[in-house]
Amino acid sequence: MNNKLKFFPEPKLAFRYGQSAEDSRDGLTLFGPFEEATGRIKVGVIGTKDGIYNYSSFVNRINKPIFTQSLGRPSFPGFSSVFGLEWPDSPTFSIEIDENEIEKLVNVKNLKERTYQIVSFYLGKIKKYLVEEDKSIDIWYVIVPMSVYLNCRPKSKSGKATISKQRIEIFQSGQLSLFDEEDEIEHYNEMYESASDFHDQLKARAIFEKIQTPIQIMLEDTLLFKSKVYGKEYNDDMKAHLAWTHSSSLYYKLGYLPWKLTGVREGVCYVGLVFKKIQSELSKKGFACSAAQMFLDSGDGVVFRGNIGPWMSKDEKTYHLNKESARDLLKIAVESYKDKHGSYPREMFIHGRASFTNEEWEGFTEALKDSPGTKLVGVKIIETDGFRIFKDNPSEKNVYGVMRGLSLIVDEKSGYLWTKGYIPKTETTNHLEVARPLRITIDRGDSDIEIVMQDILCLTKLNYNACIYGDGLPVTLRFSDQIGNILTAIPAVNWPAKSFKYYI
Fold first, then answer.
1. Rounded to 10 degrees, what is the CA torsion of 179, 182, 183, 186?
2. Fewer C-beta neighbours within 10 Å, C or N terminus of the chain?
3. What's the structural domain count of the chain?
């Protein structure tokens, strides 16, 4: 086994002035973000009086340094100092909502109705602004009280997610009021087929209604640097972590890359497959929504929604497309790449959590018939359970076990990669439990297993939604569940391709 163990050095990230660093926080502090931005951020804020006040307090605090004593949680120099943008604590435009109005909606008994009406309430404020105001907004901050968070999620204790018996009787009797019958039925179909999660439904409906401004949803307590679980104020380490994470996410949502990978092979792109079970009567027939998230060599990403179909396997553990849907989904991604670069990719890696069927692979291959020069490789990536490697004699500095970047090459097509593990730079780990490796298999096509592993390790550093040293999953799979939740949050079938920034 020792002969097959190999260590991959930590990938480096590129920042301003052609400089590089292992840690995104070091690079941002020393050199600044990869793409330079200047000027003032124009922010629209929707919230209660307390919510708007908390927003201003948060911006005021995040523009100042937050000092720590931890290598794993480095100090935050202040937003403007790092990113070069002016972020005023007074929003460009604010919409104050009556707390009593929100609480009235929160008290709606039915979970589906409650979530739908509260999303409509906030979304209506944004749409009204777009119609009546002429000031441009770079990003919307939707500030919600804890009551919305607690009562507008699928597992909320209060309310039921089913249509009431009284409403069914009204439908059946034809005694509809307020709306025309068809409008009433369509309205309630949409309401009861939409997700019960406020975050996912708001994101989905904003994308579907072609609102071009990114939306940042935040809790009032988070703006006070408080834990939403315990309600206690964060210590300085966690305050700095929140400041780093939120700042990099904001910068990316504004349309700028905080960092990118160094030494990436030109003409290479990575596609992560997304599947999400449909939350309706179709779920009983194994129906799911398919999608692809494509990440370019620049580091930016685009999400494409595919077809809805019976993609779930009989054991309900894996998903597989038919030939036509596989072809159509990848064709959209390939043509999008060409539109952006003027040529087809040289290499395309498809990342999935299951082996690819012959039918799927035929569809993917057919999508590239106009680009015979593109090399297509299918990679299966799963988080293993039950397999660990332990050190015989942990050093005083490294009592945590194996290092991040360690790999065990099984053969020319497969191996294990530890994306979690001890990190010398931070003198700690990026996990809490004994590190589990990723099982990586070149399932289709040909490539060098070491190159595939190095690429996956690199892709763990492209999570712009969290400014951390390195993630446990590559970005191609890291957000698949979240993207799937948003894609299926509303019953709309047609879905435009949208930048990855609208989903995080």
1. 130
2. N
3. 2
Last residue of a domain, one of 253, 275, 290: 253
Structure-token pair, residue 265: 């092979």
CA–CA dist 198, 212 (Å, integer): 19
* Residue 422 to residue 55: CA distance in whole angstroms: 36
Across 40-49, 75-84, 217-226, 418-427, least confident range = 418-427
Name the residue range of residue 218's domain: 43-161+196-253
pLDDT digits (tens, 9 = 90+) for 279-336: 765 555 788 999 999 998 777 899 998 888 999 887 768 999 999 999 999 999 999 9
Q: What is the rounded distance in angstroms from the CA atom of residue 65 to the CA atom of residue 466?
A: 19
Q: Are residues 248 and 265 in the same domain?
A: no
317 and 411 share a domain?
yes
Residue matched to tokens 């580091």? 299
Query: Model confidence over 395-405: pLDDT tens digits?
Result: 555 566 789 99
- Listing DSSP states for 432-500 in one string gives SSSPPPEEEEEEES---HHHHHHHHHHHTT--TTS--S--SS-HHHHTHHHHHHHHTSS-------EEG
pLDDT tens for 248-294 read 999 999 999 999 999 888 899 999 999 998 876 555 578 899 999 99
In this structure, the answer to whether residues 234 and 354 fall within a common structural domain is: no
d(CA 487, CA 360): 21
Strand runs labelled E in 313-387 = 347-352, 375-383
Which residues, including other chains, have CB under 8 Å from residue 223's CB and lie 6 or more apart? 51, 54, 55, 57, 58, 143
Say whether both 241 and 300 belong to one domain: no
Q: For the whole model, what pTM was predicted?
A: 0.91
